[in-house]
TrEMBL record:
<dbReference type="GO" id="GO:0004497">
    <property type="term" value="F:monooxygenase activity"/>
</dbReference>
<keyword id="KW-0274">FAD</keyword>
<dbReference type="GO" id="GO:0016627">
    <property type="term" value="F:oxidoreductase activity, acting on the CH-CH group of donors"/>
</dbReference>
<dbReference type="InterPro" id="IPR004925">
    <property type="entry name" value="HpaB/PvcC/4-BUDH"/>
</dbReference>
<feature type="binding site">
    <location>
        <position position="210"/>
    </location>
    <ligand>
        <name>FAD</name>
    </ligand>
</feature>
<feature type="binding site">
    <location>
        <begin position="468"/>
        <end position="471"/>
    </location>
    <ligand>
        <name>FAD</name>
    </ligand>
</feature>
<keyword id="KW-0560">Oxidoreductase</keyword>
<keyword id="KW-0503">Monooxygenase</keyword>
<feature type="domain" description="HpaB/PvcC/4-BUDH C-terminal">
    <location>
        <begin position="308"/>
        <end position="484"/>
    </location>
</feature>
<dbReference type="Pfam" id="PF11794">
    <property type="entry name" value="HpaB_N"/>
</dbReference>
<dbReference type="Pfam" id="PF03241">
    <property type="entry name" value="HpaB"/>
</dbReference>
<keyword id="KW-0285">Flavoprotein</keyword>
<feature type="binding site">
    <location>
        <begin position="169"/>
        <end position="171"/>
    </location>
    <ligand>
        <name>FAD</name>
    </ligand>
</feature>
<protein>
    <submittedName>
        <fullName>4-hydroxyphenylacetate 3-monooxygenase</fullName>
    </submittedName>
</protein>
<dbReference type="InterPro" id="IPR009100">
    <property type="entry name" value="AcylCoA_DH/oxidase_NM_dom_sf"/>
</dbReference>
<dbReference type="InterPro" id="IPR046373">
    <property type="entry name" value="Acyl-CoA_Oxase/DH_mid-dom_sf"/>
</dbReference>
<feature type="domain" description="HpaB/PvcC/4-BUDH N-terminal">
    <location>
        <begin position="27"/>
        <end position="291"/>
    </location>
</feature>
Length: 546
């Protein structure tokens, strides 16, 4: 086991140091500087520095640009809010919405993050900041388990807001054997191996945590399935800085091509990275623990934490769909097919998804409600989430169908600059009312979005980031209140046939609004009742990750 001679002091020292330098909303440069620490990041078998490695250059620059928007004259007021009695402003991502105006301001900020990253960066800091808002909202329930857990949640929110932290989250267990559980083999889940008055030591792994190399902190909690552990040592909610001793971050293969940003305009900027986290006996100070041992509180808290971030995910989906639609329409124009009936039908189908996403956002805004913690939260995202997981792939497929061979047959930047080739490219690789340079760039964009390994990753993300689609559909079905229509149908089929002549029409009051049985933030009991749908026997499936 790692030697923790005085671990509390060392970690706590780091945290306090940061507190001393509270600055509110980050600038791009402050963000980049803050990544220059001792975090242990591995890429392709090499230990790397996030601030220096070429594969990370594109996202580094893009994140810095996005953070800087918070300080621009045009967007400062929309993205940040002044803190009374402080010299700085904090991001709206961390505000705790009490009324309609505050919630609207929060959403406007989320739109700015997502719009400015083309819907390509699911884990802009705004996303996880909203989970931390949820953690704050759940503090009373955590305090029932241990008053310090509740206080820690509130302090952690304040700390993250003051420092405008970028956070990743680690929810899922490593994919070793889904037919078994940690009670049978301890390596299957992260666990507490030691507890002292100062804190706990954790061992194990999490699969996976997006943005890890670029985050300041990891928030560890559990989806409802994973929360229902048979043994208490596997139930833990906590937060750690990414440079915590013993925490190893192993990134997947880099998808960015910074050396070839012409050919990969999105991949070179928006590869946000996904990583395995290995906790090789990592000390967690007591002030960073939000929950221990209590499965029920962990289980019921999941959606309370995620209520706002799932909505942010829908905002991201909407902007991703808009980007896909615009590229598809321009690709069609550029090769002269956009007036064909079948092509227009496909563009119309794509537009349907954009519209459904936009209207879902409006619906969730309309169904906002007060949480038990006193905040104002958006309506349930469960229906729109299953929609996005299903139709995200279809949207990419349409763009692939429209681009056809042009998606891969485009000149490179070097080809375009080659004098021997240039006249041929201008003659045979131009498009309809578009020169070869812009057409090539446009199709490269389409390739990145839907065919490149980056585009495939985005599709995987859309499909899986909210957990198992079948499971979420089952949860949605089970929560949907069919009682009124069910009763009317029962009445109807109970009438003896044949129907008596002149029978009066039923005039039952028809309920159209809020068909989900439970409010957005209180569906855990409904989920609990359906924890083991007959998907396959004795396997703990995944629940709605994010
Ligand atoms: C790009 C990307 C980014 C992600 N980012 C994060 C992140 O930042 N943080 C985080 O915590 N997680 C993240 N995830 C993980 C995500 O939550 C999981 O992928 C999701 O919950 C599914 O779990 P799994 O991948 O382990 O698949 P598994 O659970 O191993 O499932 C594999 C297959 O088995 C099926 N299966 C599993 N259990 C059952 C069952 N009981 N009955 C029937 N079939 C079953 C599944 O449907 C699936 O087809 C990310 C995933 C992706 C792809």
């Amino acid at each position: 086991m790692r030697n923790h001679s005085n671990p509390f002091t060392s970690l706590d020292y780091q945290l306090e140091m940061r507190l001393d330098h509270a600055h509110g909303a980050l600038t791009g440069q402050a963000y980049l500087d803050s990544l220059d620490d001792n975090r242990e990041v591995w890429l392709d078998g090499q230990r790397v520095r996030v601030t220096e490695h070429q594969a990370y250059a594109g996202l580094r620059n893009e994140m810095a640009r996005l953070y800087d928007l918070q300080h621009s004259d045009a967007l400062r007021e929309q993205m940040t809010v002044a803190v009374p009695d402080a010299s700085y402003r904090i991001s709206h991502s961390y505000t705790l919405p009490q009324d309609d105006a505050q919630l609207d301001a929060k959403w406007a900020n989320s739109h700015l993050w997502m719009q400015n990253s083309w819907g390509q960066l699911p884990r802009v800091p705004d996303f996880m900041a909203n989970v931390v808002v949820g953690l704050h909202d759940y503090q009373a329930e955590l305090a029932k388990v241990d008053p310090q857990f509740g206080a820690n949640a509130a302090h952690y929110h304040a700390y993250c807001a003051r420092h405008d932290l970028s956070i990743t989250h680690a929810i899922g267990d490593p994919q070793i054997d889904r037919s078994s559980g940690p009670a049978e083999s301890a390596d299957l889940a992260l666990r507490v191996i030691k507890e002292t008055p100062e804190g706990v030591v954790i061992r194990g792994a999490k699969q996976l945590a997006t943005m890890s190399p670029f985050a300041h902190e990891v928030l560890i909690y559990m989806s409802p399935t994973f929360a229902m552990r048979e043994r208490p040592e596997f139930v833990i909610w906590c937060a750690l800085p990414m440079q915590a001793p013993g925490l190893r971050i192993m990134c997947r293969e880099a998808l960015a091509r910074p050396e070839n940003s012409f050919s990969h305009p999105f991949a070179s900027r928006y590869d946000e990275q996904d990583a395995m986290l290995f906790f090789d006996d990592v000390f967690v100070p007591r002030n960073r623990i939000f929950l221990l041992r209590d499965s029920k509180t962990a289980f019921e808290g999941f959606r309370r934490l995620n209520a706002w971030s799932l909505y942010v995910g829908q905002i991201r989906f909407y902007h991703r769909m808009r980007t896909t639609l615009a590229v598809a329409a321009m690709v069609s124009d550029s090769i002269g097919v956009s007036s064909f009936r079948e092509v227009q039908g496909k563009l119309g189908e794509l537009t349907t998804y954009v519209e459904m996403a936009r209207l879902a956002l409006l619906g969730m805004q309309q169904e906002r409600s007060r949480t038990a913690g006193g905040l104002l939260a958006p309506g349930s995202t469960l229906g729109p989430d299953t929609f996005a997981a299903q139709f995200g792939t279809r949207a990419s497929e349409i763009l692939r169908e429209l681009g056809a061979s042009g998606l891969l047959m485009q000149p490179s930047e070097a080809d375009l600059a080659t004098p021997e080739l240039r006249p041929l490219l201008e003659r045979y690789m131009r498009g309809k009312d578009i020169d070869v340079d812009r057409k090539s760039r446009l199709f490269r964009m389409a390739w990145d979005l839907t065919c490149d390994s980056y585009g495939m990753r985005q599709e995987l993300y859309e499909r899986w980031n909210r957990g198992d689609l079948a499971r979420n559909r089952i949860a949605l079905f089970n929560q949907f209140d069919r009682s009124e229509i069910g009763q009317r149908i029962l009445d109807e089929i109970s009438v003896p046939a044949p129907l008596p002549a002149g029978r009066e029409l039923h005039a039952a009051p028809i309920q159209l609004d809020r068909p989900l049985r439970a409010a957005a933030n209180d569906i855990a009991p409904a989920l609990a009742a359906h924890m083991n749908p007959p998907l396959s026997p004795a396997i703990e499936g995944n629940q709605h990750e994010q």
